[in-house]
């Protein structure tokens, strides 16, 4: 059974490290490392007395961890099942050192100190739009900001989940400057299988899920249906109001249908057509109720409702022994609504609605001849999205529209210079056309219009050189470029128009992979240095307004390291650590001071174990540590979060036709603060209270 794999040890460091300190870290990481991925046959590996070999699929090529230089952690079905209480992607992100997920609110996780939400969140995003730095995709479809920030993403019926730290722009394209999360759901099978799952827990938590897969035409056509609904009540008491009902109600529904076609008359051809429906609702934040001064967190909390329908069509055709053609086509429609309560005070009205659609097509050709020194791929991608938005406050309605068209070409080639030395060259050329229009009305002032229309092009290269003295020993170095596009908006309070340019990063990494002690110990590591150019960040515009600007200088550096150890055939241990240093320099009109990036703890880590015993029982636990960090860009000491620990555990019984589990999250009921917002020192986000629950899964 897959163990709780080491949540990757992130040992990020900053340029402010003294040279001897950085050298010591690098030397230590070259010996030890961060283990980031899983395999599908962990039981067999444990019985064999060895650690299973990790397989990575999220970079458009299937390869082992020893052929992968990216800092990535992979969860397969076994690892998800043995992670205490894991039912949505946030449960996995929170286990990864060097990733700070501060809880339910506007902000997506910070990865290596970089806010993956992008520069605009909350009210700022109302007029600037959103452009995340994290590309979270499910079966090839990249989710939007609102789907990531406010809608739980189900782990039910997932084949594999991969979490990448560091720029992935060259391979994932848009919105991948901080990293990527690649989720792959299970395909239909040519044999019958079905599952049902039920779970309950404190805070009215419940999960109801089911799956069925079966052949239609033997060995040629099969289908798969899955559905998952999860509900819970926020630990913060909130009021009920129309039209949302109870503001503290959090719900997620995901339904997916897939059809697999593998015609016997066309050898090597495979087609999968999938349809997905997602519907989520949640309060905008879970900060405590607060009434002092301006009411940021009333009992009648704003509620986000997000819905989407998408179709994904994947085609793969092995033309011959060397060439394979693949195509991924996605069409989706989405709708997001923010509801606020303004019955008692019309000035508090701040509703928002978005209706949009997306289309993308990505054909590619692979070259992979057995025993060839050269293998690689080349492809193109076309993406188009349009959305109509409306911000509604006490003054009136403010309509907006946003259109983006992106065309890109990408390629990757790996050549074996020697039997032990591989060189990989990759590149992406991307051209984006974006327009954003907004209309804002202010009493006793002329109507303010935002008319942004911009076309930009960027070249994103990457080179990777690896040395493999043995099949399970790798040392490598890589250099690559990442980016996020620019945009425009109106300041939230005074509606001042502004524009901001693209942001870029050069990423340098040294990585190691080691398999030792008769394949019972695995050590992995990534040491990184990121040099940003034009990092987009919120800056003050007067005493009570903000805009987005590009800063000239920003840097992060550090490392991630981890270890997996199969102590016995029944006991797997893991440990990981993250070290990070970050800094950026404000623009001159902001004072030009050098500060730390928010949510960038200098130290983070994780330890855990999976123990199987008594013919079917398994006990798993993990403890995760985050060092202190600043909540805001100003580095106000009053908004600094103290270090904290979180411990989770699970006891399960696995039998031939299912599993029964009892789990506890935040076992010691820590109420540590995780994030301060808007100088509201008496209403910080905190860890969710201890939750005890149980689940039953039956397979037929």
From TrEMBL:
Membrane topology: Multi-pass membrane protein
Cross-referenced SUPFAM superfamilies: Porins
Example of a GO biological process term: iron ion transport
Signal sequence, start to end: 1-37
Residue ranges that the Swiss-Prot or TrEMBL entry lists as coiled coil: none
Cellular component terms per the entry's GO annotation: cell outer membrane
Protein name, UniProt field: Vibriobactin receptor
Organism: Vibrio nigripulchritudo SOn1
